[in-house]
From TrEMBL:
Belongs to the WD repeat LST8 family. GO terms for biological process: regulation of actin cytoskeleton organization; TOR signaling. WD repeats lie at residues 51-92, 188-229, 242-266. Subunit of TORC1 and TORC2, which regulate cell growth and survival in response to nutrient and hormonal signals. The keyword Repeat applies. The lineage of its organism: Eukaryota, Metazoa, Ecdysozoa, Arthropoda, Hexapoda. It is found in: Cytoplasm. This is Target of rapamycin complex subunit lst8. Part of TORC1 complex. Part of the TORC2 complex. Pfam families: WD40. Keywords: Cytoplasm, Repeat, WD repeat.
Length: 266
C-alpha cells in the first residue's frame, strides 16, 4: 500500500476546520471554520489574514480561477464574494439564502455560483449581474453538496435522503444578461443513508457520491449508470476527490484514514 507523509502543519486555533481550498497559483491556503475564515501563506504555519465579522460555521471556501476573488458560504445563510486584489480582502458582494448554506460550487464560466441550502433549495447565482434562479429538487430534504462538471454540461446535487439529482446545463441565448439554462435530467437513488458529497472528475467522465452508509459510488456520466462502489465497513465516507488524470480517487472516512483507489475504466 502507498503511504503519505505530512510536509507542513498549519495552526488553526479556536475552531475546527470545515473547508479548505488552495488559490490556483498555489501560494495561499484558505480555511473556513467556526466564525473564522483564515488565509495562510503556503510557506508558513500561521495565518497571514483573519477575516472578521463572520458568524456561525463557514462550510465552503473556493477561488476564482485567476485568484481575483474568493467565495465562502456558511450557516449564517449567506454566500460572500471577497475581493482578493488588495492586501486586505473585503466582502464586495453577498447572496442571502433563507436557510444555512451547505455547499457552494463555481461554474467553469467563472461567473456563476451553484449553491445548496439546508432548506432544500439549489440556487444558481450570477455574481456580476446579481441575477439568480432557485430550484427545489425535493421538498423537506437538505442539499448536502453540489457540483458542476468541468465541461459545464451537468450539475449534480445530493441530499440527506441519499438522492442525487442531475441537471443538464446549456448556455443562455443572451449570455450577457441571462443565467445558464438548467434542465432536470434524472434522479439517482445513490445511497440508502445520508449523502455527503458529490464530485465530477476533471475529464467530466465520472461522478462520485459519498455517504454515511460507508460507500463512495462512481457513475459514468455518459449514462449515469453505477460504474463502481467503494466500501468501508462501519464508517462514514465523508469526502472524495479525483486525481488530475481522473484515474484515481482519494477518499476520507470517519475511521481517520484517507485512501487512494485506482479506478477501473473498463
Amino acid at each position: 500500500a502507498m503511504k503519505g507523509a505530512s510536509t507542513e502543519n498549519m495552526k488553526h486555533a479556536d475552531s475546527q476546520v470545515n473547508a479548505l481550498d488552495i488559490i490556483p497559483n498555489g501560494t495561499i491556503l484558505a480555511a473556513g471554520g467556526y466564525q473564522h475564515i483564515r488565509l495562510y501563506d503556503m510557506n508558513y504555519s500561521y495565518p497571514m489574514i483573519n477575516f472578521d465579522g463572520v458568524t456561525k460555521n463557514v462550510t465552503r471556501v473556493g477561488f476564482q480561477e485567476d485568484g481575483k476573488w474568493m467565495f465562502t458560504g456558511g450557516e449564517d445563510c449567506r454566500v460572500r464574494i471577497w475581493d482578493m486584489s488588495t492586501q486586505n480582502p473585503a466582502c464586495k458582494r453577498m447572496f442571502d439564502c433563507l436557510t444555512p448554506v451547505n455547499a457552494v460550487c463555481l461554474h467553469p464560466n467563472q461567473v456563476e455560483l451553484a449553491i445548496g441550502s439546508q432548506g432544500g433549495s439549489v440556487y444558481l447565482w450570477d455574481v456580476k449581474s446579481d441575477v439568480h434562479e432557485q430550484l427545489i429538487p425535493e421538498v423537506e430534504a437538505s442539499i448536502q453538496d453540489i457540483a458542476i462538471s468541468p465541461n459545464g454540461q451537468y450539475m449534480a446535487a445530493v441530499n440527506n435522503k441519499g438522492n442525487c439529482y442531475i441537471w443538464s446545463l446549456s448556455n443562455s441565448a443572451n449570455s450577457e444578461t441571462q443565467l445558464t439554462q438548467t434542465d432536470p435530467k434524472l434522479r439517482i437513488e445513490a445511497h440508502k443513508k445520508y449523502a455527503l458529497r458529490c464530485k465530477f472528475s476533471p475529464d467530466s467522465s465520472l461522478l462520485v457520491t459519498c455517504s454515511g452508509d460507508g460507500t463512495a459510488r462512481i457513475y459514468k456520466t455518459d449514462t449515469f449508470q453505477l460504474h463502481a462502489e467503494l466500501k468501508i465497513e462501519k464508517y462514514w465516507m465523508w469526502d472524495a476527490v479525483f486525481s488530475n488524470d481522473s484515474k484515481y480517487l482519494f477518499t476520507a472516512s470517519s475511521d481517520g484514514h484517507a485512501r487512494l483507489w485506482k479506478i477501473e475504466t473498463k
